[in-house]
Amino acid sequence: MRHSEEEKALALAGLFQAAAMVQQVARTGEVNQEAYNPLISSVFNLDPKSVEDVYQGVSGVKLGVDTLLLVLREKESARYADAIRYTIGMLHIEKLLKRDADINSVLRSRLEQVTNQLQHFDGMTSPAVISKLNDIYLDTLAKFKFRIQVNGDPSHLQKPENAAQIRAILLAGVRSAMLWRQMGGSRLQFAFGKSKLISILQKLQQEITFT
User: What is the rounded distance in angstroms from the CA atom of residue 123 to the CA atom of residue 118?
Assistant: First the structure.
């Protein structure tokens, strides 16, 4: 069983993975399928046994672990400037969600409905499921006054399928933000515990490499 600091790092990696993927879709119109599948799956895992279970194993957040290490260790903040902004935005939305019992209740109810219907669809990342997650995002998280402004290539952002993917990924990112908070994560802790976090992420990266 993992200790809480590792689980906290996994949840943070899930959040950064979502942010990096929003940046990727907005700029290129493409998704990293290996990173996309576990993220979308995490939205439907409402009562997990562990944080690792949320992402179908530690390798499910490989992109997030790698991205976090690039930002923290290799000082690649400029390269991932948009992703960092999306991360902060998703953390803020999670905080707003925590304060709004009505939207929280609607969100869980709608996700439970889709979870019960998954067997009728062609996989969790099928266009039909992503369309439903897009609608859920618009009916819940998009109701807050605060909005995440996504930057990218207009030709990609204007495509409905890409916009739906971005909203589905943001929904997954807020899910990871909730997990991180539940595990005791805080911005202050993140700011003053970077060296410890880097050490844990390096350990997770090695584990993923040899999985």
Answer: 7
Instruction: Give the separation between CA 23 and CA 123, rounded to whole angstroms.
Output: 24
Half-sphere exposure of 112 (CA within 13 A, CB side): 7
In the chain, the domains with their CATH numbers are 4-209 (1.10.3890.10)
75: three-class secondary structure by DSSP: coil
62-72 and 33-44 helices cross at what angle (nearest 10)? Answer: 110
In this prediction the pTM is 0.94
Residue range 121-160, pLDDT digits in tens? 888 999 999 999 999 999 999 999 999 999 999 999 999 9
- For 163, the token pair is 């916009």
> How many Cα atoms occupy the beta-carbon half-sphere of 105 within 13 Å?
3
- Helix (H) or strand (E) holding 121, with range, is none
